[in-house]
């Protein structure tokens, strides 16, 4: 299967129903196919061909969807950039993948100002394009129609960024096969989308979970309703006005929705499926969410960027309640999953080990990073770095995350990256960054700092120092100044002790 196939299917089977709704724009599948075929022709004239990397840095919209389809129509590689990155991080990514073309919207223009002028840039916003950029609508109007190359199988389809053990983002390589197998399997295993229904696309599309949730709805047919960004007022309005059936969320989003002052007066009875993941779901938030959306089936997805999101799913068990609500569900239809002990063999049920998976959903590897690829894909398994156990019925329970990753508001933050930035502050001698439980964000980034002799700094200065160099969501929300860091018997920083101390 190729990733443009859902668009061709929609043209054939739902030519009159809107496929995308974005602000005041509504477009049917034939209209979108018209745009895609012509934009593909225009990009081909700009030198984009099969295998070339096409960077998209934008907020959610119908044009983001069309940009993805255009890239795959050409057999090129969609490279999805986190719009919360700094301009330096974006430039590093664009250079690192050797991008042929960049598509950017109005709000993300500051992120691409210093890029190589030889890379073609297409403006996704409304109105005239800035100097040195091509207009999206003008390219569609002038572009020749080209045929879909229908790339599929193990052809590289997307580069989606995931943090690494060094703290630097890595470009995860996914094929048409790995993405489509996850889409098809998840729709068959759990009620994660409504055939012919309407899906609210509110989580940012540079996250693979939001991307696959959107594509899953396209596969089964229906309408995609785009929220430019997550704003509770806008989201609640769209749910009511568009009779939204399904949406992909993170716990903090659900909490902000049901706590919003407008929620009691909003009709949410149309919502029949809510898929969540990316961060731990506290029991209290889940209980409130299920009460707030009484008609919704809740589906939890566990996985990572490297596994095309889905490794396991917890679906119908939600309404049944009980201890299994603490689990990450059972292996999805396409995935082999086991808990591996230190000896490389499957651990006995109930025994903690590393969660590993294999199957066609697993990434091809990391772009231009054979060492990290070999470390992750060893012995025929993708090693998640997550620790957990499996019960006698195959339910997976996560107990810890290796690599000290912090998930705050659905964003992955790697402590090593933040520590490197804090350590560069002239007043800092040593530091450690950990994740602490947070009722709103799931986890918050917390820094423990040892100042150099004579050094003076405040928590706000540390936060500002970090925000000036990397994305703002990576900055510590809280900072504690201490005389010395806790260490293990071998002299290593004892983050486990610190988490217990500050929790």
From TrEMBL:
<dbReference type="InterPro" id="IPR050237">
    <property type="entry name" value="ATP-dep_AMP-bd_enzyme"/>
</dbReference>
<dbReference type="InterPro" id="IPR045851">
    <property type="entry name" value="AMP-bd_C_sf"/>
</dbReference>
<feature type="domain" description="AMP-dependent synthetase/ligase">
    <location>
        <begin position="8"/>
        <end position="367"/>
    </location>
</feature>
<dbReference type="InterPro" id="IPR020845">
    <property type="entry name" value="AMP-binding_CS"/>
</dbReference>
<feature type="compositionally biased region" description="Polar residues">
    <location>
        <begin position="11"/>
        <end position="23"/>
    </location>
</feature>
<feature type="region of interest" description="Disordered">
    <location>
        <begin position="1"/>
        <end position="26"/>
    </location>
</feature>
<dbReference type="InterPro" id="IPR042099">
    <property type="entry name" value="ANL_N_sf"/>
</dbReference>
<feature type="domain" description="AMP-binding enzyme C-terminal">
    <location>
        <begin position="417"/>
        <end position="492"/>
    </location>
</feature>
<protein>
    <submittedName>
        <fullName>AMP-binding protein</fullName>
    </submittedName>
</protein>
<dbReference type="Pfam" id="PF00501">
    <property type="entry name" value="AMP-binding"/>
</dbReference>
<dbReference type="InterPro" id="IPR000873">
    <property type="entry name" value="AMP-dep_synth/lig_dom"/>
</dbReference>
<dbReference type="Pfam" id="PF13193">
    <property type="entry name" value="AMP-binding_C"/>
</dbReference>
<dbReference type="InterPro" id="IPR025110">
    <property type="entry name" value="AMP-bd_C"/>
</dbReference>
